[in-house]
Design a protein that fits this description.
6-stranded mixed beta sheet; globular
Length: about 140
């Protein structure tokens, strides 16, 4: 068991699964009882305390309105090697109705020393999420 928080390089490796559409690879590094808050005023906003529920109610719901599953690519990592790090992500997807879903995210992540994400505050384009869901569900 490691006694240090994940380095920037390790964080990039952990998040690589999201870009490849391999969500299970990423979520293996998320605590089962993660405290995950999706910020904003839109249908996906809210606080979750279970990673399975979070996946179903947010990423699963988004994937259901897209032509292809959402792939999140890392643009930047600020931090690493300490308890908190910020991961900037981009999604370039297309909704079933043709709406371009080009969204940018900032996930403020708190890490355990064992390399698990235990808390996330996720910031995103709320208006785009709201529009995409309203037009495609």
């Amino acid at each position: 068991m490691s006694s240090a928080y994940p380095s920037r390089e390790m964080i990039l490796e952990i998040f690589a699964g999201l870009a490849a559409g391999k969500y299970s690879d990423f979520f293996a590094h998320v605590a089962d009882d993660v405290d995950w808050t999706v910020m904003g005023h839109h249908p996906l906003a809210g606080q979750h305390h279970d990673k399975i529920v979070f996946q179903k109610q947010t990423l699963g719901r988004l994937s259901g309105i897209m032509k292809e599953p959402v792939q999140l690519k890392v643009r930047n990592v600020v931090g690493g090697g300490e308890e908190w790090a910020v991961v900037e992500l981009v999604a370039n997807s297309t909704c079933k109705n043709g709406l371009e879903f080009d969204n940018t995210y900032a996930w403020v992540c708190r890490w355990s020393k064992e390399g698990k994400i235990v808390q996330v505050r996720a910031y995103l384009d709320s208006a785009l999420v709201k529009q995409a869901i309203e037009e495609n569900e």
